[in-house]
């Protein structure tokens, strides 16, 4: 029989909590006086063997692999697959964006910052870029056209954001500022399966088309796909800042005021760092799960091994007591020395099985846990470092 088959035998009648010294001695008195050492050992085990079956079963069925429920990123820069992120960028293309700051138009500065931001997007995030105020002129005659027009000029994955620059090239500042209409249009851009939605509105002024951006931002924030609306005020006067702050507050986001393209880019980098935090959390969650699983499995193995060994010690003591009792009753015919060796061999065999099997599985768990931990740590750190380098460019 295999080691497991030997140890999986049923326990003796007086094993474990059923032990009763007097009943054991009565049973020993009934044994014939002319048995071989092997037969005496069999009879002793039928009386006093401990129950190792639960612990041997644990070893036999033990799964030493470590499985982390936190899908790794692939070679490309991505967010964890169970997160579906949608990022909407709304660009004000009203006539006031023609104004220059430090020799460069607000529009050109905003385009450069948005393109730079887009280059750093998670590659599997869904990105949409929508412009408003780019139709008509600032005249009252063109106001209806300008106010009702908002256009999504890019919609794709973060891996495709090199197309944003080309899409922006055709956009020139022209008309009025329909912020509410642009926010309303975001609703149709968001995939229903989205889990996280963020909007960045880049504007240099207040709503001028009679819409209610505060209400629409609130609706977005309270919708089924909860959306956070952030407002980036680009060289906005005090009156405009007051209104745009209300929009951001109702949208659960923040308002930031910038007055140069460099400041705008700095803010977008800050927003991007928040996205990079997804990777840091992914690493922490994955390595934490790996460690917890490893320690839990190792603890179970240690308990199983130690419990088996305690039972072996107790079994050995009970067998030795039984042998000593038989020696006083059957001294002339009892093969005492041979039985004693078999009792000690039984203990050595069972102890060795528990020790070697427990330690082997313990080492497997350690190696598997370290491998999973290192894979998550290495891949995650590589991507975080890559994102860190991009924020410096």
UniProtKB/TrEMBL annotation:
Region (Disordered): 373-393
Gene3D superfamilies: von Willebrand factor, type A domain (3.40.50.410)
Biased composition (Basic and acidic residues): 378-393
Record has Oxidoreductase as a keyword: yes
Extent of the signal sequence: none
Record-listed E.C. numbers: 1.4.99.6
Keyword terms, alphabetized: Oxidoreductase
Name by which UniProt lists this protein: D-amino acid dehydrogenase large subunit
Organism of provenance: Paenibacillus pasadenensis
